[in-house]
Amino acid sequence: MGLKLPEILLIFAALLLLFGGSRLPQLGSSLGSALRNFKRGFSTDEKEDVDEKKTPGTLSAASGVDKDVAAKSPSHHA
Question: How far apart are CA 47 and CA 70, in angstroms?
Fold first, then answer.
Protein backbone atom coordinates (compact mmCIF):
# COMPACT_ATOMS: atom_id res chain seq x y z
CA MET A 1 0.00 0.00 0.00
CA GLY A 2 2.87 2.35 -0.75
CA LEU A 3 3.07 5.11 -3.28
CA LYS A 4 2.86 3.95 -6.87
CA LEU A 5 4.43 5.60 -9.91
CA PRO A 6 1.44 7.87 -10.80
CA GLU A 7 1.28 9.27 -7.25
CA ILE A 8 5.04 9.89 -7.17
CA LEU A 9 4.91 11.67 -10.53
CA LEU A 10 1.99 13.82 -9.34
CA ILE A 11 3.87 14.81 -6.18
CA PHE A 12 7.02 15.57 -8.19
CA ALA A 13 5.03 17.72 -10.63
CA ALA A 14 3.43 19.65 -7.77
CA LEU A 15 6.84 20.25 -6.16
CA LEU A 16 8.25 21.37 -9.49
CA LEU A 17 5.43 23.89 -9.90
CA LEU A 18 5.76 25.17 -6.32
CA PHE A 19 9.53 25.46 -6.02
CA GLY A 20 10.86 25.52 -9.57
CA GLY A 21 13.60 23.44 -11.13
CA SER A 22 16.51 25.31 -9.58
CA ARG A 23 15.27 24.96 -6.01
CA LEU A 24 14.47 21.24 -6.08
CA PRO A 25 18.09 20.04 -5.71
CA GLN A 26 18.58 22.42 -2.79
CA LEU A 27 15.36 21.18 -1.21
CA GLY A 28 16.41 17.55 -1.61
CA SER A 29 19.85 18.24 -0.21
CA SER A 30 18.51 20.04 2.85
CA LEU A 31 15.94 17.30 3.44
CA GLY A 32 18.65 14.65 3.23
CA SER A 33 20.94 16.46 5.66
CA ALA A 34 18.04 16.98 8.06
CA LEU A 35 17.28 13.26 8.02
CA ARG A 36 20.94 12.40 8.58
CA ASN A 37 21.14 14.77 11.55
CA PHE A 38 17.91 13.34 12.94
CA LYS A 39 19.28 9.79 12.75
CA ARG A 40 22.63 10.92 14.17
CA GLY A 41 20.79 12.46 17.12
CA PHE A 42 19.32 9.12 18.06
CA SER A 43 22.55 7.20 17.54
CA THR A 44 24.67 9.53 19.74
CA ASP A 45 22.76 8.81 22.96
CA GLU A 46 25.53 6.48 24.18
CA LYS A 47 28.21 9.02 23.28
CA GLU A 48 26.52 11.73 25.38
CA ASP A 49 26.82 9.55 28.48
CA VAL A 50 30.58 9.35 27.94
CA ASP A 51 30.82 13.11 27.29
CA GLU A 52 28.99 13.93 30.53
CA LYS A 53 31.78 12.26 32.55
CA LYS A 54 34.36 14.71 31.19
CA THR A 55 35.04 17.84 33.17
CA PRO A 56 34.23 21.08 31.40
CA GLY A 57 37.23 23.08 30.24
CA THR A 58 37.91 26.76 30.55
CA LEU A 59 37.97 29.22 27.71
CA SER A 60 41.57 30.34 27.53
CA ALA A 61 40.96 32.35 24.36
CA ALA A 62 38.68 34.80 26.18
CA SER A 63 41.63 36.76 27.56
CA GLY A 64 43.07 37.05 24.05
CA VAL A 65 39.79 38.42 22.76
CA ASP A 66 39.71 41.00 25.54
CA LYS A 67 43.23 42.10 24.60
CA ASP A 68 42.26 42.40 20.93
CA VAL A 69 39.21 44.49 21.75
CA ALA A 70 41.24 46.73 24.05
CA ALA A 71 43.89 47.20 21.37
CA LYS A 72 41.35 48.19 18.72
CA SER A 73 39.35 50.56 20.90
CA PRO A 74 40.16 54.24 20.41
CA SER A 75 42.50 55.76 22.93
CA HIS A 76 41.17 58.46 25.22
CA HIS A 77 44.57 60.09 25.66
CA ALA A 78 44.71 63.70 24.51
Answer: 40
